[in-house]
TrEMBL record:
Biological classification of the source: Eukaryota, Fungi, Dikarya, Basidiomycota, Agaricomycotina
Keyword Nucleotide-binding: no
Keywords assigned: Membrane, mRNA transport, Nuclear pore complex, Nucleus, Protein transport, Translocation, Transport
An individual GO BP term: protein import into nucleus
Superkingdom of this protein's organism: Eukaryota
The protein, known as: Nuclear pore protein
Family that this chain belongs to: Belongs to the nucleoporin interacting component (NIC) family.
Amino acid sequence: MSRSWSRRTLSRSIGEVAKINRRVEEFKDLHDSLQRNLHTYLPLAMDVIAAGVYQKLKASNTPDASRQMTLAALRKKSRSLMVFAGMLRYRLSLDVYSYLACLDVEVAL
């Protein structure tokens, strides 16, 4: 049972990384102003996930099963954003990576 579960999980992870890799490749074709200001947009996106949505949902009175599914989806988005930032060939400051990592940990808890 656990072997098939881990294969499915690994297969899903590989698919997610492939999708992120496609997004990284597409990013090269976006307008230069988006690329130059990525150091602003990535932390803002993580702020929306972590502070804006995740914390409010975690404290809400939404039914537990629904809330857990939504929290898991937000954790996945947070992790995907981290992977995206790591796969970019653009140099971001260490402060940006550190900030993203801190919020990703916050969402994971």
